[in-house]
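(Deposited chain)
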Amino acid sequence: MDPIDTSTWKPGFRTGMLLPLRGMSALRQQRRAWPWLVVPMVLQLTLIVASIVLALRFGADLSASVEEAAAASSWLSWASGFLAVVSRILLSALLFVVFMVPTFSLTTMLASPAYDRISLLMERSTTAMAGVDDEPFSWRLFATDVGLGITHSLLALILYAALAVPLLVGALIPWPGAIVMSALGYLVSGFFAVRDAIDYSLSRERMAFGAKLRLLWKYRSTTLGMAASCVLLYLFPPLTLLTLPACVAGASLWYVRLKQLEPTTERPLLQAP
């Protein structure tokens, strides 16, 4: 495949929206990455099926609570039927998206070597890093990187739970909670999904957990654009299984661009061969 030129990519919401699609296109062309997709996709399929079952199961219970609240409110009783349909759809979709982050986190932890290799192949497919040699393998560094990645993923899950639980509770309010909190829930879930996707590139820099979040927030328009794209792809059944690989690939390509925008780091990644 021809090297991918990321030098013209400008930070922004539109760029973020396009990143998973660019990642999908790069994966299609980078055949060396295909064997590394087998185990992660089988694992992710299992977790996605579990997410669907849980979302439908708990979504029905939560929507029933909203229906009861609507029926008990005189000013909402006339719309209780409509709210029942809307709340069932929104809450089931929100729960499915909320389960997306643990699904991504578990997949990225359990299939870490495979996704790390995919991320590296994506970075090496760019014009900026086509001639950069891989870091010499070391079991000590490998163990350190795996441990750091798992630790940061667990920290992210704790932080995500602290944000997601209040949003789920707020989504039980018939109006406007079901819509407002669901929208916020989608964005928060998407943000942490992007964190999981770009974590491989950031971890190779040995970045601290807080530094990773600050970098994502500094380019928040791009991060939120990619978050929105990840959620939309995840909610579209034919592409659900491809969402995480596409996001990992797109995030890896974007990180190469970030290295051009942020040239001064303690451990520069873009070096002459």
Q: What stands out?
A: Residues 48 and 176 are 29 Å apart (CA to CA). Residues 13-49+100-127+136-261 form one domain.
